[in-house]
């Protein structure tokens, strides 16, 4: 397939582009800067200049492709307003690409987070949240899955709170950044809340499988570690950075505080059994040992 990829030069996207090219696909990669375009071309993709706000560029990219994988998202979590702007931009981008594919039976793979379910690990059958700081992403993904009734093979790969590679990425990466700035490797509450995780190279395989095989209207979980206690994550970060490890106020994490404080383990049993996906790379705690002091 010729695949249009948004976010193709990020931590996850670069792994996805390599996975696609390594399995016989060609890639058109959205690139919002000269540096991103050079990175995409160096990886073997054709760069298409533009950002998520350039809806005509997104429509044109989708029109040229046999399938779309959407990964791009602004990671400005500095305020509730910044998060809302990022969600609104992504929602408009997804709607534009989805409409371009209506009636074509071409695949559109998008991503969301794994759901939060009180008292147990979430599964692929659980609905994504449409409330809270990033609830708009859930609404946008739900709308894309509904395009299955309009001739789009739309699917969603739900990513865990941390997608990691070489000690960086995801919410664990945010904890590391905050620790460097504050001088404390902190965690909210008592730190027993669990975060699921996956290595970026394993997530890339699942995104390819969803593109190639997943039926329309389905959701899948890219979860390798069902849930690592946040205190354990902070402990590794603190040891690697030589910083004290302690509980800090939830407000430390701004608009993401409620998410950081929630116990949110997740299962990928159905995904593994149905698509034959099997994570093969190191887990989060081992990968965090790659953090450089």
TrEMBL record:
InterPro entries: Epimerase_deHydtase, NAD(P)-bd_dom_sf, NAD(P)-dependent_oxidoreduct. One of its GO terms (molecular function) is aldehyde dehydrogenase (NAD+) activity. Residues 3-216 form the NAD-dependent epimerase/dehydratase domain. It comes from the Bacteria. Transmembrane segments: none annotated. Gene3D superfamilies: NAD(P)-binding Rossmann-like Domain. GO terms for cellular component: cytoplasm. This is 3-beta hydroxysteroid dehydrogenase.
């Amino acid at each position: 397939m010729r695949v249009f990829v948004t976010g193709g030069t990020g931590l996850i996207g670069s792994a996805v582009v390599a996975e696609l090219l390594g399995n016989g696909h060609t890639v058109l990669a959205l690139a919002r800067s000269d540096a991103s375009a050079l990175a995409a071309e160096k990886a073997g993709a054709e760069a298409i200049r533009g950002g998520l706000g350039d809806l005509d560029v997104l429509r044109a990219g989708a029109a040229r492709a046999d399938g779309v994988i959407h990964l791009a998202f602004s990671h400005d979590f500095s305020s509730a307003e910044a998060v809302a702007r990022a969600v609104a931009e992504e929602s408009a981008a997804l709607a534009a690409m989805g409409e371009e594919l209506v009636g074509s039976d071409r695949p559109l793979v998008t991503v969301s987070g794994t759901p939060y379910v009180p008292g147990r690990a979430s599964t692929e059958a659980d609905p994504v949240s449409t409330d809270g700081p990033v609830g708009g992403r859930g609404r946008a993904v739900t709308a894309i899955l509904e395009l299955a009734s309009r001739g789009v093979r739309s699917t969603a790969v739900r990513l865990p709170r941390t997608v990691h590679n070489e000690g960086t990425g995801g919410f664990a990466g945010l904890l590391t950044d905050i620790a460097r700035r504050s001088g404390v490797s902190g965690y909210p509450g008592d730190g027993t809340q669990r975060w699921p995780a996956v290595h970026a190279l394993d997530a890339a395989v699942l995104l390819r499988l969803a593109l190639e095989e997943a039926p329309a209207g389905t959701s899948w979980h890219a979860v390798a570690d069902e849930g690592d206690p946040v205190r354990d994550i902070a402990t590794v970060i603190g040891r690697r950075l030589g910083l004290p490890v302690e509980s800090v106020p939830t407000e430390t994490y701004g608009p993401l505080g409620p998410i950081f404080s929630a116990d949110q383990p997740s299962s990928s049993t159905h995904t593994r059994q149905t698509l034959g996906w099997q994570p093969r790379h190191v887990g989060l705690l081992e990968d965090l040992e790659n953090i450089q002091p």
